[in-house]
Amino acid sequence: MKPDGVTLDRPGGRISPAARGAIVGVTAGAVTIGVAELVAGLMRRIGVAGGTPSPIDAVGGAFIDLTPPWLKDWAIGVFGVHDKTALYVSMTLVLVLLSIAVGVIASRVVRAGVIVFALLVVVAVTAVWSRPHASLIDLVPIVLGGLIGLRLIATRTRDAGVRDAESMTDAHVSRRVLIGSGIGAVVLGAAAVAVGRVVAGGARVAAVARETFVVPKVASPVAVPAGADLGISGVTPFIVPNAEFYRIDTALVVPQVDPANWSLRVTGMVEREVTLDWNTLLAKPMQEAMVTLMCVSNEVGGSLNGNAIWTGWPVRELLREAGVRPGADMVLSTSIDGFTAGTPLAALTDERNSLLVVAQNGQPLLPEHGFPVRLVVPGLYGYVSATKWVTELKVTTFDADQGYWTPRGWSALGPVKTQSRIDVPRDSASVSAGTVAVAGVAWAQHRGVTGVQVQVDSGPWQDARLGVDASVDVWRQWVYEWPATPGTHTLTVRAIDATGEPETATFAPPAPDGASGHHTISVTVA
Ligand SMILES: Nc1nc2c(c(=O)[nH]1)N[C@H]1C(S)=C(S)[C@@H](COP(=O)(O)O)O[C@H]1N2
Ligand SMILES: [Mo]
Questions:
Q1: Is 3.30.470.20 the CATH number for 242-408?
Q2: Ligand 1: which residue has its CA nearest to atom 16?
């Protein structure tokens, strides 16, 4: 066996200044992020953070807020509910590439590398500062990590300049040391990020409160009517289990809200401002309502919707306590993380079951679905109504205020469109000839679904059988027993709402006010 030195002492085995710079760059990046995330986690733990001290979460959050609507559409379309994982992965890649670039630049002109690195730190500082509730102390982690990273760039890339003076052996040793320390820094950086997240666990307090929260009993519980669930395999369950419920929000870190510290303020055009705390809310007469929640980003045939039984106190009662002043036509609800939704006042004061929700399907809300308190408003897309971790209701006007998505190109008003979806068979499936159950769900929140029809190829519309109607605010399952003949066929579905209006065939993308068009699939019958 050749001794190590024989291979490594070849001139070609020496590391180039650029490669050395790249390794130092990645080391500096990893150390910066590792230190910052660890400190951010500790700050969260001891409760000194104001907003988002974690630079990863702050940059991600700022990125989400700045994302143009088309990119958000695209990301949700491609990654669905994994859009946040996709964001984290892309951020890591960008970070690695930027670190390499800084190191390579520094290997040529140290000062230039230092300046570029400093600019990147400034971007991160700006992101942390831009987050809701940011305070000066939130800047500590990124500034600390940034200074250490800067020092690494300034001192370690300088070595590259003297490499020619080194002996072969030195080059060999320093290469091993350099690569080793580079890998070590990345591993330690990643570990520090992970430890920071675990430590952050303000999570703990909120989690304990959640686990010990006994969901209030209601005077008239809501149950699933017999026959609402057709029990067809492959069709979305009539009540979607909480853990499988779709999740859409702009929160990169799920807010961990301790109900003991939670309160909801009613402000704006009211006779008297009201502040509701957790115990006061729980003492109110709670109601249950079955409501199918719906995301405006749902594509035709998509599954960004779900049905649940929600427990809560009617928003109209709270607004009555505050006394809405004349002239108001909107309620701007704000989340603890800064998200806002603008809901027509009427939808919160009319007869419908708009609730300040504390429980979903008899369980405390999951943190990602808004624990301790969220809004659920029948008939409106979530982006204009379903604020999770809600902390303020400002009674106002559409002229004076806008919800989060409106300046980003989405409609100020978001009534849910009538739609239907084929769940089985799946698109492009192969089935055997004979009777095939074509089935799915249809919804027209707050108008109600009265019919569903299926078209095979270009044949006539045929009535499907509907599951029993639970309420106008709830989707209905449907099934059409299709006498399938061999060949390739297209199947199209349309719903009819209580106004008698069939679902439009006109295609529309999700932006600005919800997708439309018939869901069509293709199946091969053998
Ligand atoms: N705080 C907060 N609440 C929010 C959102 C958000 O981004 N932040 N998104 C809304 C949107 S667009 C939808 S569709 C629903 C989704 O609720 P879910 O995640 O519980 O299904 O939450 C709404 N409430
Ligand atoms: Mo949504």
A1: no
A2: 248
